[in-house]
Each structure stands twice: as structure tokens, then as C-alpha cells.
Amino acid sequence: MERIQSYIKENAKWVHETLDQYTLNLDGVPETLLESMRYSLLAGGKRLRPVLALATTEACGEEKEKALPFACAIEMIHTYSLIHDDLPSMDNDDYRRGKLTNHKVFGEAQAILAGDALLTEAFGLMASGAKQAKLSAETALTIIEEGVRSSGARGMVGGQVIDLLSENRPISLVELEKIHQHKTSDLIAFSVRTGALLSGVSRETLQALTRFAYGLGLAFQIQDDILDVIGDQELIGKPVGSDEEKHKATYPSLLGLDESRKKLAEITEQAKAELLDSDVVNPEYLLGIADYLLSRDR
Prior knowledge:
Blueprint: H1 2-24, H2 31-41, H3 48-59, H4 68-85, E1 95-96, E2 99-100, H5 102-106, H6 108-132, H7 137-151, H8 156-165, H9 173-199, H10 203-230, H11 233-236, H12 242-245, H13 251-255, H14 257-276, H15 284-295
Antiparallel strand pairs: 1-2
């Protein structure tokens, strides 16, 4: 576990430093807007999605440097979603990653615009990354098209809408899984698929990696739900019990803690089996990330 933690930390640092330099070099951005964008983008976090993009590229036998711009773009999309999720009109959270949320520091209007800017810049970064890597037009456009699908109305944004509409009413486990498939897993799957597409894997390998990623995304969300009940507020960076306070359906509220833990372990093993049954060249780090997420405490 120590080895995979070092791998995640090293690659997260690489992504962080690249995002820092990239945003510093953005010309013509109003100072307050740039400060707001960087406040949330550089606030830390697990950097799971960009690390998965890098690790998948490496697992498929390609140099992970090729994936770096795309990994950073994915983190920009993720950060935009967090800024907007925290707004009073949505989850109304005061803290994120142990710091005041963006709108608490810069105001609601500025937070909305910072999120808008990060989302827009992300697709520009993907385009420049595609040119830098000399990708074929088909590969570049496929990645950008999938980025739109996974982060937009048919993916993450759509999942957030269903989540909001599900508050204060009983929902089934099937409905809850649908919410998290879009709200959480779609962007995780996009991260893995981006690494695979950059590496030119076969259709069968891409499908296996996609199944692995969706399993990983669901496992990640179940553990998030568990930590909201029993986690350490100092470690997770926001108050525990917030889901219950907002009357949100979660895996523990539907299944109980013990069954949620059991489901978490089962889904993680199923995801790993998909990877092991594929012809991925070097699955070690991806398998390690799956095990790390199973036992994480933040």
C-alpha cells in the first residue's frame, strides 16, 4: 500500500505543479477571476481522476507525459463541478478540503464565473494537448466528444440534477446507483478511457477498462457515503453527517454500514477482475489504486 500511496502522491504533485504553471501563464484573465480559479484548483485534494488518466496511459504501454494536459483538464472540470456543487442554490457547503468554499471567499457570482472559466479552459487545454501529442484528428475529437458527454447534460451535470430532484424523498438502490453512475462514475470512466484512447488500445481492452472504471467510480462513491457517516472531519475536510442533514439517500441509509462495506468490497473485486481478465500490459498501479480507494480515510 505504501508504494501505491507514493505513486499517487508523486503524480498528484506533478499535476498540481502543472496546473499551477498553466494558470499562472493564462494571459488576459481579470485578476480576481484568476485568483478565484486558482483558489479552488490548487486547494489540494486526491487528484484521483488525473492520476487515473496517467496511470491508465502507463498501464497501456504509453508514456504518461502524453496524457498530462488531458489529466490536468479533467481536474479542471472536476474542480468546476465542486465549486458549483458547493453553492447555496445547490449543496450549500461552507467548507471544501478543509478550506472555506469558493463562494464564501469570493462571493457567489465570482464562484459561478470561476467554475465557468475552468470548464471552458479545460477543453482548450485538451485541444492544445492533442496538438502537442500530434494525435490524429479522430482520436483528438473522440476524446473531446467523450469529455463533453461525461461532464455535461448526459453525464455529470445530469447526475447532479437527478440528485437534487431526489432530495427529501425515498429512492431505490437502483435510482441511487443511476445518480452516482452519472454524477461520479462518468468522469472517472472518462479519465480511464482517455488514457486508453491516447494509447491506441483495442476495442476489447477499452471495454474492459471502461467496466473497471465504472466499478471503481461506484466503489469510490460508496466509500464517500461511508466516510460521511464515520469519517474524521479533520481528514475529509468538511463536516461529517452532511448527507443525512440534507436528507440525501446514501448507501448506508439504504443498506446500513455493514452491507455498504460488503458491497464496497464486492464491487472493488469485480472491477479488479475486469482488469485482470484484459490484456492491459501493466495493470499494477491501477489495481493498487482500486485497493487504495477501498481503504481510504479521506
